Amino acid sequence: MDNINKPIQSVTIKSTQDLGSFVRTFRVAQKMTQADISGLANTGNRFIVELENGKPTVQLQKVLDVLDTLGLEMVIQRKGRY
Amino acid sequence: MDNINKPIQSVTIKSTQDLGSFVRTFRVAQKMTQADISGLANTGNRFIVELENGKPTVQLQKVLDVLDTLGLEMVIQRKGRY
DNA sequence: TCACTTAATTACCGTTAGGTAATATTTTCA
DNA sequence: TGAAAATATTACCTAACGGTAATTAAGTGA
């Protein structure tokens, strides 16, 4: 599939790596720095680094804060929808 | 809106409370106990209790494990989609 | 190439997540 | 209503989250 120039609709998160990679890609696409996010989301730079690198133990509320800062939201659904 | 007997398609998670409430409701609908989940997801019962009660600091990977056990998946998307 | 920006690492450290196991409380239903 | 099942709480404990601040490394653009 050709995803070039195709706006992202949604990404299924199967692992913390998936989330980290997506957050990084999306952040960069928004031309934001890690410092921008950590400032807006009231976290340390360290948290952003760890999140983007897929740390499994990041805390949920902080993740939600970062997603909100990026204009993203989390959805739960049954497996296999598309 | 009448949601009775309407299969859940997706739930937007704006807070850890949202997630906890949804997990509980879904688990009960599946006729599973907390012990069932904690067994299958390799966590303690304590984690399930805390997750369902909306603890903000639950760790992401464990949440993903529980969702997987329930046949659910996490999706990230831009805000405001429906 | 070199200066500047951004990202990553490290040390320090108080707080706490969450496992287990025991106990208590609440819910369920025959 | 009473016993069993399910959920919640507690104590004990180790590992480690994540903030700050300083430092280092990596990336970028003129």
Order of helices and strands of chain A: EHHHHE
Largest sheet of chain A: none
Q: From the 3D coordinates, which CATH architecture of the domain at 16-69 in chain A would you assign? A: Orthogonal Bundle
- Could you give the distance between the termini of chain A? 15 Å
Uncertain regions spanning at least 5 consecutive residues of chain A: 1-6
Rg for CA atoms of chain A: 13 Å
CATH topology of the domain at 16-69 in chain A: 434 Repressor (Amino-terminal Domain)
CATH superfamily of the domain at 16-69 in chain A, by name, is lambda repressor-like DNA-binding domains
Percent of sequence in beta strands of chain A: 5-15%
Chain pair forming the biggest interface = A-B, 31 and 31 residues
What oligomeric state do the depicted chains represent?
homodimer
Helix content of chain A: 40-55%
Instruction: Please state the structural category of chain A.
Output: alpha+beta
CATH class of the domain at 16-69 in chain A: Mainly Alpha
Q: Tell me the overall shape of chain A.
A: globular
Helical element count of chain A?
A: 4
DSSP summary, beta strand count of chain A: 2
Q: What is the arithmetic mean of pLDDT of chain A? A: 91
